[in-house]
Specification:
By secondary structure, the protein is of the alpha+beta class. The chain contains six helices and seven strands; from the N terminus they run ββββαααβαβαβα. The chain has one domain: 2-C-methyl-D-erythritol 2,4-cyclodiphosphate synthase (60s Ribosomal Protein L30, Chain: A, 2-Layer Sandwich). Strands 4-1-7-5-6 form a five-stranded mixed beta sheet. The chain has a two-stranded antiparallel ribbon with strand order 2-3.
Length: 164
């Protein structure tokens, strides 16, 4: 059985915060507001993985009301989500993410993001797609008020795979 999940996240920009996307710190004069490090790429990806396995979302597993995880590194969230997917009996096959932002430029950082995610998910970087686009100056993202990300994850039932 092959399953897919979709994830989405959005955060507004905030002063005096570092910008982290895909587990990589990106030079910027402002970061994203959030309970964690606000890595929209990894949050969308974690939700896609959890959704594919019918395991809920990161809001239930890492609730904003939990003060013990303030400013948590989103790579911890991603690794925990991947572990939960594997413990539920699935293999992570492929993930794909689109970052939506007017600024900063994402392309120079994509290979570093893919490398970080590959380590966190335990899959080859060749199974990780990362793209970026703008919102053509439309809406809050287009006005440069924040960054959003969409993700899809494909997982395979481990028992099904082993029978093949």
């Amino acid at each position: 059985m092959i399953r897919t999940g979709i994830g989405y996240d959005i955060h507004p920009f905030a002063e005096n915060r570092r910008l982290v996307l895909g587990g990589v710190e990106i030079p910027s004069d402002r970061g994203l507001a959030g309970h964690s490090d606000a890595d929209v790429l990894l949050h969308a990806l974690a939700d896609a993985l959890l959704g594919a396995a019918s395991l809920g979302d990161i809001g239930h597993r890492f609730p904003p009301s939990d003060q013990s995880i303030v400013d948590i590194d989103s790579r911890i969230i991603l690794r925990a989500s991947a572990t939960q997917v594997r413990e539920a009996g699935y293999l992570i096959s492929n993930v794909d993410v689109t970052v939506i932002a007017e600024q900063p430029r994402i392309a120079p950082h994509i290979e570093a993001m893919r490398a970080a995610i590959a380590v966190d998910l335990g899959i080859p970087a060749t199974a990780i797609g990362i793209k970026a686009t703008t919102n053509e100056q439309l809406g809050a993202i287009g006005r440069g008020e924040g960054i959003a990300a969409l993700a899809i994850a494909t997982i395979i039932d481990r028992a099904f795979w082993e029978r093949q």
